[in-house]
């Protein structure tokens, strides 16, 4: 290869190597700036999430730029590695022993540059991925907080209404139970009084049959008793209706 290409072949390889190194240097500077600006852009987007406007350059577009630039840099590094391999092959060829030391020194400089660029690329890429993962996590936390804040007011209001309704139902149930208890007690009392009155009336009827004057008095007492019973029943009914209306109000 050395005999056929000579020094022109070597110089052509060096020219290609320097050109690739310059391109890599520019790409890596832009790549580093993209990594640095990513967190600031993500923070601004996080503050604008609740607004109606969406920036043209958001996290997704920066991710696409990152992927594109990473592929381009990897391709340039691969091409530069290939050029360095060709330079090593030429420097190790038997046709140029007198220049071997100088060529190897030049080759080592290009290898060092390639190694530095490779190391810088992987470091910047790792930093970018770490920042993106952190921003994604923070963004998720911010969304959860905003979602909780937006929903907590409505939830608290609904909870308050539910509690009030539950308390109203409990009060209604208590009033109904009290009304039923009063009605049952009144019924038992009236039943007991009716039994006593029947027993007393039976005795008085027996006595009245023996004494006509007493019989006339008993009839008037029975008439007044029926009237009082009707009045008492009406009062109890009205009280029951009023209590039920208050309970369901």
From TrEMBL:
<comment type="function">
    <text>Involved in transport from the ER to the Golgi apparatus as well as in intra-Golgi transport. It belongs to a super-family of proteins called t-SNAREs or soluble NSF (N-ethylmaleimide-sensitive factor) attachment protein receptor. May play a protective role against hydrogen peroxide induced cytotoxicity under glutathione depleted conditions in neuronal cells by regulating the intracellular ROS levels via inhibition of p38 MAPK (MAPK11, MAPK12, MAPK13 and MAPK14). Participates in docking and fusion stage of ER to cis-Golgi transport.</text>
</comment>
<keyword id="KW-0333">Golgi apparatus</keyword>
<comment type="subunit">
    <text>Component of several multiprotein Golgi SNARE complexes.</text>
</comment>
<feature type="compositionally biased region" description="Polar residues">
    <location>
        <begin position="52"/>
        <end position="61"/>
    </location>
</feature>
<dbReference type="GO" id="GO:0005801">
    <property type="term" value="C:cis-Golgi network"/>
</dbReference>
<dbReference type="GO" id="GO:0048219">
    <property type="term" value="P:inter-Golgi cisterna vesicle-mediated transport"/>
</dbReference>
<comment type="similarity">
    <text>Belongs to the GOSR1 family.</text>
</comment>
<dbReference type="GO" id="GO:0015031">
    <property type="term" value="P:protein transport"/>
</dbReference>
<dbReference type="GO" id="GO:0005797">
    <property type="term" value="C:Golgi medial cisterna"/>
</dbReference>
<feature type="transmembrane region" description="Helical">
    <location>
        <begin position="230"/>
        <end position="248"/>
    </location>
</feature>
<dbReference type="GO" id="GO:0005484">
    <property type="term" value="F:SNAP receptor activity"/>
</dbReference>
<keyword id="KW-0675">Receptor</keyword>
<dbReference type="GO" id="GO:0006888">
    <property type="term" value="P:endoplasmic reticulum to Golgi vesicle-mediated transport"/>
</dbReference>
<dbReference type="GO" id="GO:0000139">
    <property type="term" value="C:Golgi membrane"/>
</dbReference>
<keyword id="KW-0472">Membrane</keyword>
<keyword id="KW-0931">ER-Golgi transport</keyword>
<dbReference type="GO" id="GO:0006906">
    <property type="term" value="P:vesicle fusion"/>
</dbReference>
<feature type="region of interest" description="Disordered">
    <location>
        <begin position="42"/>
        <end position="61"/>
    </location>
</feature>
<feature type="compositionally biased region" description="Basic and acidic residues">
    <location>
        <begin position="42"/>
        <end position="51"/>
    </location>
</feature>
<dbReference type="Pfam" id="PF12352">
    <property type="entry name" value="V-SNARE_C"/>
</dbReference>
<keyword id="KW-0653">Protein transport</keyword>
<keyword id="KW-0813">Transport</keyword>
<protein>
    <recommendedName>
        <fullName>Golgi SNAP receptor complex member 1</fullName>
    </recommendedName>
</protein>
<keyword id="KW-1133">Transmembrane helix</keyword>
<dbReference type="GO" id="GO:0031201">
    <property type="term" value="C:SNARE complex"/>
</dbReference>
<keyword id="KW-0812">Transmembrane</keyword>
<dbReference type="InterPro" id="IPR023601">
    <property type="entry name" value="Golgi_SNAP_su1"/>
</dbReference>
